[in-house]
């Protein structure tokens, strides 16, 4: 059973989320501030974290960084903040998705299912593969990336995007295909997601992110991974 940690200081919203999630057979823990959230995550590690940014004791991005210090659990941000730079800050800190309040419960649940799906180990195919570039190594079987002799910490969404590109190494993968495989059919037009996450992969893996060698943009079409 999938465990969800809901972190929000609005009692009515927490109650609505808990009721809807439990009705769909999720296990749910709730926390009303950042310190409680970090303690709850350590005591009972969740499969997904649903996190408000405006917490009473600390900013939600601090909670994201605290979690990312030891876990790659998917994090879905819920926030009334709509400014693009605040969304980018949360994603850069390690969030996997961003839902703006107010939101529809059906859309939220679809994003939650997508986050769980992205975090699941890939079993199809069963072929072990290691791709080596001049800068880093991608181990598709172990779901790890090594650069400079150390592991590179990727969020589940970053890994899923890299995995799709790596499994199609040398071939153009369309924007629509990437969006559908990584985020789901409802996101086939959300090209801004690709721009944000491709920029994150380049910052983490390219020697010169402004002049990428491995994550190549084909303008208006898609992206290509060149080992």
From TrEMBL:
UniProt keyword list: DNA-binding, Phosphoprotein
InterPro entries referenced in this protein's UniProt entry, alphabetically: CheY-like_superfamily, OmpR/PhoB-type_DNA-bd, Sig_transdc_resp-reg_receiver, WalR-like, WH-like_DNA-bd_sf
DNA-binding stretch(es), residue numbering of this chain: 128-227
Start and end residues of each Response regulatory domain: 3-116
CDD domains named in the record: trans_reg_C
Sites bearing 4-aspartylphosphate, chain numbering: 52
Keyword ATP-binding: no
PROSITE patterns: OMPR_PHOB (PS51755), RESPONSE_REGULATORY (PS50110)
Top-level lineage group: Bacteria
OmpR/PhoB-type domain residues: 128-227
SMART domains cross-referenced by the UniProt entry: REC, Trans_reg_C
Residue segments, region Disordered: 208-227
Pfam family, one: Response_reg
The protein's name: Response regulator
């Amino acid at each position: 059973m999938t465990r969800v940690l809901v972190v929000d200081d609005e009692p009515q919203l927490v109650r609505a989320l808990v009721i809807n999630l439990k009705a769909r057979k999720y296990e749910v823990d709730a926390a009303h501030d950042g310190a409680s959230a970090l303690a709850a995550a350590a005591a009972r590690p969740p499969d997904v974290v649903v996190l408000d940014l405006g917490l009473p004791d600390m900013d939600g991005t601090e909670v994201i960084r605290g979690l990312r210090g030891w876990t790659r659990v998917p994090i879905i941000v819920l926030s009334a903040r709509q400014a693009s730079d605040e969304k980018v800050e949360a994603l850069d800190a390690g969030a996997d998705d961003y839902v703006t309040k107010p939101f529809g419960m059906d859309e939220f649940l679809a994003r939650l299912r997508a986050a769980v799906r992205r975090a699941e180990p890939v079993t199809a195919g069963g072929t072990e593969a290691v791709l080596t570039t001049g800068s880093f190594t991608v181990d598709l079987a172990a779901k790890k990336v090594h650069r400079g002799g150390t592991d590179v910490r990727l969020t589940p969404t970053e890994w899923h995007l890299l995995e799709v590109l790596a499994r199609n190494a040398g071939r153009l993968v369309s924007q629509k295909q990437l969006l559908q495989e990584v985020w789901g059919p409802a996101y086939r037009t959300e090209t801004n997601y690709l721009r944000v996450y491709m920029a994150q992969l380049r910052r983490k893996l390219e020697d010169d992110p402004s002049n990428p060698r491995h994550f190549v943009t084909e303008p208006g079409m898609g992206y290509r991974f060149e080992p």
